[in-house]
Amino acid sequence: MLTLSNNTDALPSVDDTNHAPIEIPDLSDLFDQRQDRRFHVVRPVELIPIGIDGLLDLERRVIGTSRELSVHSVAVDIPAGEWHSSQQLLLGMHWQQQVHYAGVIVRRIKTHERGLFLGAEFGGLAQELIEGDAPLPTFDRDELAFVLPQSPKLYENWSQAGVVEKTLLDRILVCPRCCGVPTFRHACRKCGAGRVKNDRLIHHFACAYVGLATEFTTETGEVVCPKCRQIRLVVGSDFEYLTGENLCGSCGWRDSETELYGHCLRCNWRFEMHQAREQELHGYHVRRLAPLAVITDSI
Predict the structure, then answer these.
(1) How far is CA 149 from CA 55, 95, 141, 252, 293, in A?
(2) Where are the domains positioned within the chain?
(3) Domain 39-130+289-298 has CATH 2.40.10.220
(4) Are 255 and 245 in contact (CB under 8 A)?
(5) d(C-alpha 136, C-alpha 29), whole Å
(6) pLDDT single digits (tens) 58-91
(7) How far apart are CA 261 and CA 8, in angstroms?
(8) Whole-angstrom Cα distance, residue 23 to residue 15?
(9) Which of 26, 82, 102, 191 could disulfide-link 251, Cβ–Cβ 3.0 to 4.6 Å?
(10) How far from chain centre, in Å, is Cα 166?
């Protein structure tokens, strides 16, 4: 603790004409000591071993009680006979009626009459996985698909353990073969080609004639009915435009209808839209343990 003295003789004299600079002490060590200070925090905790692949070993979950907590470390008591010599763990601490998680690395193990005492530091693989922004699916330009930062198997494993909350973000249509992202187009119903065009027609209301728009258009740009020879036709009042028959530029097929076809950007497979697979995109949220907030709430 820093204190102020009322003894003015202890203060350095200041010479307005020639004074030496006052040295400011380095307080960084003091702040580090305050951060490493341990507090008596007793709360229910659970410890789950984590493998090198990031998967949680739920069968070896251990229930215990926290004893001490600091910004960088935690001490936990667990019953005897329930420890499986795992160094890297996911720690869940019950706080404010919810479980908050952090990754820990076991540094000390001691036995006592009630069981085992574990001293651990925050860090390790589990901490790396839960730090940063919430994992969301993003479009991978190399894979040409929506992917998560880690394997979907890992997130499903953590979701089953109750560590992360799975949220549905969107549903998209993907390739039925490889789940790549496709593009869609109105295509020929026979061959699936997108080279389809149709003729523009005009329906003249007065004489009921329907013909190609090119038949009605003169060299001067006027619209004249080729049947009844009425001139200066006005769209909407004298005639309407219609869509003619579709013609495929690849196979020559003619049809009044087109079909939506998908084309996979990854495997180049072309398929009818009804064959597309629906893929759900999920985000995952984890309640991270904030040791300082727990300490402040416990004091």
Answers:
(1) 14, 28, 14, 47, 28
(2) 39-130+289-298, 189-257
(3) yes
(4) yes
(5) 39
(6) 889 999 999 999 999 999 999 877 676 778 999 9
(7) 89
(8) 16
(9) 191
(10) 10
Per the CB < 8 A criterion, the answer to whether 139 and 172 are in contact is no
Q: Average per-residue pLDDT in the chain?
A: 86
Contact 196, 246 (CB under 8 A): yes
Helix locations, the chain, DSSP H:
28-35, 124-130, 152-160, 213-216, 291-298
- Beta bridge pairs of residue 241: 202
**257 near 134, Cβ under 8 Å?**
no
Tokens 């295509």: give the residue.
187
* Phi-psi category of residue 208: left, alpha or beta, with phi > 0 → left and psi -120 to 50 → alpha: left
Cα–Cα distance, 195 to 198 (Å, whole number): 10
Answer yes or no: is pLDDT of 229 > 70.
Answer: yes
Do 111 and 117 touch, CB atoms closer than 8 A? Answer: yes
| Lookup: tokens for 149 | 């930062």
- In 3D space, the residue among 43, 48, 89 whose CA is nearest the CA of residue 66 turns out to be 43
Tokens matching residue 240:
């309407």
126 and 189 Cβ atoms separated by less than 8 Å: no
For 96-188, strand residue ranges (E) read 98-112, 115-122, 138-140, 145-147, 164-174, 182-187
Q: Can you tell me which residue has the tokens 């949680």?
A: 56
Q: Which two tokens stand for residue 224?
A: 């004249």
Question: Which pLDDT value is given to residue 276?
Answer: 97
Tokens of 185: 């187009």
How many other C-beta atoms lie within 10 A of the C-beta of residue 179? 18
The candidate with the shortest Cα–Cα distance to 73, out of 104, 95, 49, is 104
Q: Are strands 138-140 and 73-79 parallel, antiparallel or unpaired?
A: unpaired
